[in-house]
Design a protein that fits this description.
- This protein has 13 helices and 14 strands.
- With about 350 residues, the protein is of the alpha/beta class.
- It has a single domain, classed as NAD(P)-binding Rossmann-like Domain (Rossmann fold), CATH 3.40.50.
- The strands form four sheets. It has a seven-stranded parallel sheet with strand order 3-2-1-4-5-7-11, sandwiched between helices.
- Strand 1, helix 1 and strand 2 form a beta-alpha-beta unit.
Length: about 350
Amino acid sequence: MKVLVTGGAGFIGSRIVQRLLDAGARVTTCSRGNVEQPAPNTRHRSVDLRDPKATAEAVAGHEVVFHVAAKAGVWGPRREYFDINVQGTRNVLAACQQHGVKTLVYTSTPSVVFTRGGIDGGDESLPYPRTFLTPYAESKAIAEQEVLAADNVAGLRTVALRPHLVWGKGDPHLLPRVIARAEAGKLKQVGDGRNKVDITHVNDAADAHLLAWRRIDRAAGKAYFISSEAVALWPWINGVLQRAGVAPLNSRVSSGTAYKAGAVLEFIWRMLGKRTEPPMTRFVAENLATSHWFRLDAARRDLGYDPQWTGERALDEYFGVARRDAETQSEAVANATAQATA
């Protein structure tokens, strides 16, 4: 089985690649930049997905594509988000259809349904909103809809996964940024601290991708929320800080104040043409102050998804605490997928 993973050198992509290799697949990875040390036993191509010809050349000869690459973040030129996340995905879809790819697993985000006021126990029936607080969410929503609409076109089966707040060992962004801001005294609790939020360990996220591939007959044409557990956000953050040897948060700001500050800072940053992310944005304020967690019924039913990396076990892995228990779910997924690649 020949598999292409866009963004295969990234945080989620590299975990997917390793699971594919463990399952016996022949893997090619691609990314916009050069990779100094590609994963062992893989081929790597430097490809800008905004280039339709280069994208088609990368896709050719593969039976399965995991489209993980994207421009992430909450701030940046709108055109870049749309060029990479929308047009890049269109180029991947066209290449898959042109070259007879059988399955496309697309990495989406719960941000595609995010609205003000939070979400408590949402499911896949949630609609796409009419307006978005960030071009990242808007561009991913457009791309997700086009991926799902392409299911069963030219023999291609498609599925989209929405992992929420992915973290774990090797996390280059989420927890390192939280810890660094807390150390610098620049992190405050936003809101009343009672909001409940989904978090997804990177191992569970990677397993979900392989499960979606294996069960594409059930999953085709659908999107699925993916998470490891729902936590009380601010107590969880303080637990992380305690593990990191950082003092717990002792100051807070109201959600309304944070939202207004985000709006003002966004305006100033746009006026000044700054490309760096503002200290606060409306999208970040909403995410920090409101609940956003989702039911996993559909993923459990259709994919057989059963998150394994939760609680102290997940934190132990992040902070390098030795444990002897094996990655049982990951091993099960790899063994089952090996049969599909035979």
